[in-house]
Specification:
single chain; alpha/beta; 2-enoyl-CoA Hydratase, Chain A, domain 1; 3 domains; 22 helices; 17 strands; 37% helix
């Protein structure tokens, strides 16, 4: 074996180290300082923060931009290290999930030609996708950048538009096979944005902007001149559901990415639960009052285990990743603070997409149902409500993971059935709190419709209202959980404090290995 001092003087090793020096941030101080002045981190700083210490191993590092006809090789090595795309294998959260910590990490480097996608970079991306699929390992992709790079002229003789590139197909085809996380800081346009859109989840900073076309493309198409900040600003994309998780800066984006990834890495041995008796005080005894469903979610879940997705979009539907007794699972819930918990097109789409995510990676789903049903009316039908609401039934019918429904309060009509996976009896377990009330439609509406002629026949308005309220009270008495339980439309009425115990007990009976597309191996 060669001694260390002999290794230092080997010509080939020395040449390798000299070439690798081009890759380091300290070699490119001006570019790094410019990046820092804008309050941003370099690509390598983000990767170092994301991966466990000294675990990142680079792949394809010696690539340079395909611009040999424009610059010398030495200039390209100095100015376009790694072709502006850093890729490799690293470990994330290995302290808690040693056996499932290996991940594939990619990051466009905005200090290299504005993070544009180079010809060789595409080749490297495709290679990493293939490796990640073979390894069945997650992909985390920092996608900041300006899209395609027209300046790569070395391939001009063998390609016209580069439309035969498989990069987006390579990434998209991994949907449902391995977790894929896109992180966006700053500007992200065209091809970079398309990659983000194909990911399972987009984590973006507040100062980011995203669009399928950047300023140059928009202006080139004769559509006017726009500042990058005005094209798909983060707040707008958070409200329309494009961005799943909106964070302050890149440091928070990395921490949130680690947390999101952890739900797909396995169980946690250590966990804490809140005092479940606080559930009594969160839910009002008066059925007419709204309340904060998120407080119920955080109480049911392990302490500090809730990660809500797409919180800025369709606020009448909550979708979140949680843990109960350290075990990861998904959760959907109606929020009565928005549209009274009714399900509109956006809410149905949000829940359906989330169910698909959970099903793909073997996460059981908890459904907290408190809805008067699907929204109705001409304006809602104009949003394609039939198609969107039906998608919720279709996604639920395709579930191979268990769905446990908890009827918190209102459980009316098709909307409640959709929240339960299509039917109270298609749920793996359907439970009701004593506060729950069940009906084919909203009680008030049912009375107005079913007793319309009888009520109209009462001329005295005071007596008509008195009769109406008696009918509502009678309907509520029939539909409240402890009475509705006599017909076995659902499985059991439980004390809210027993909810966690019931969930874990039911899931312990279910073998996650019964379905063939699991990511989490066991419960």
């Amino acid at each position: 074996m060669a001694k260390k001092d002999e290794q230092k003087h080997r010509k080939d090793v020395t040449e390798l180290r000299e070439r690798q020096y081009y890759l380091k941030d300290e070699h490119r101080k001006d570019a790094v300082e410019k990046r820092h002045r804008k309050g941003k981190r370099t690509a390598r700083e983000n990767i170092a923060d994301l991966c466990d210490k000294d675990s990142f191993e680079e792949i394809g590092s010696l690539l340079i931009a395909a611009q040999r006809e424009r610059k010398t090789v030495e200039e390209l090595r100095r100015e376009t290290p790694a072709d502006g795309l850093i890729c490799g294998i690293g470990k994330i959260n290995a302290k808690e999930f040693k056996e499932s910590s290996s991940c594939y990490i990619l990051s466009y480097d905005y200090t290299v030609l504005a993070g544009t996608q180079g010809a060789f970079g595409h080749k490297k991306t495709d290679r990493l996708m293939a490796l990640a699929e073979k390894a069945n390992a997650p992909i985390l992709f920092f996608v900041e950048g300006g899209g395609g790079r027209p300046g790569d002229v070395d391939f001009k003789h063998v390609t016209t538009g580069g439309l035969d590139l498989p990069t987006w197909f390579s990434f998209a085809r991994l949907s449902g096979k391995i977790p894929r996380i896109a992180l966006v800081g700053g500007y992200c346009f065209a091809g970079n944005a398309a990659i983000a859109g194909c990911a399972d989840v987009i984590i973006a900073t507040e100062d980011s902007s995203m669009g399928m076309g950047g300023p140059a493309m928009i202006e080139g198409g004769g559509l006017g001149h726009y500042h990058p900040k005005d094209i798909g600003p983060a707040n707008d994309l958070y409200q329309n559901g494009v961005i799943d998780l909106l964070v302050k800066d890149e440091a928070e984006a990395v921490q949130v990415a680690k947390q999101y990834l952890s739900y797909f890495q396995g169980n946690k041995e250590k966990w804490k639960a809140q005092d479940q008796t606080t559930l009594y005080s969160i839910l009002p005894e008066d059925r007419r009052y709204a309340y904060d469903i998120k407080k119920i979610v955080t109480t049911l879940a392990d302490v500090d285990s809730v990660l809500e997705l797409r919180a800025g979009f369709a606020k009448n539907m909550v979708t979140a990743l949680i843990r109960i007794q350290g075990k990861p699972m998904g959760l959907i819930a109606n929020s009565t603070r928005h549209l009274g918990g009714a399900i509109d097109s956006d809410a149905a789409d949000k829940a359906a997409r989330f169910l698909q995510l959970c099903n793909a990676f073997g996460l059981p789903v908890i459904s907290l149902c408190d809805t008067p049903g699907f929204m109705v009316g001409p304006e809602h039908e104009q949003t394609g409500l039939i198609r969107h609401s039906s998608r919720l039934f279709l996604s639920a019918a395709a579930l191979t993971v268990p769905l446990i429904t908890v009827l918190v309060r209102k459980a009316y009509g098709l909307g409640a059935m959709a929240m339960a996976g299509g039917s109270f009896h298609t749920s793996f377990l359907s439970l009701a709190w004593p506060s729950a009330e069940i009906g084919g439609m909203g009680l008030e509406g049912a009375i107005k419709l079913g007793y319309k002629k009888e009520l109209e026949a009462i001329d005295d308005l005071a007596k008509r209202e008195e009769r109406y309220q008696k009918l509502v009270a009678s309907a509520y008495e029939k539909g409240k959980a402890i009475n509705a339980a006599e017909t076995l439309e659902f499985d059991e009425v439980i004390d809210p404090v027993d909810t966690r115990k019931r969930i874990t007990s039911a899931l312990s009976c279910f073998s996650i290995n019964k379905h063939g597309n699991n990511y989490i191996d066991s419960w």
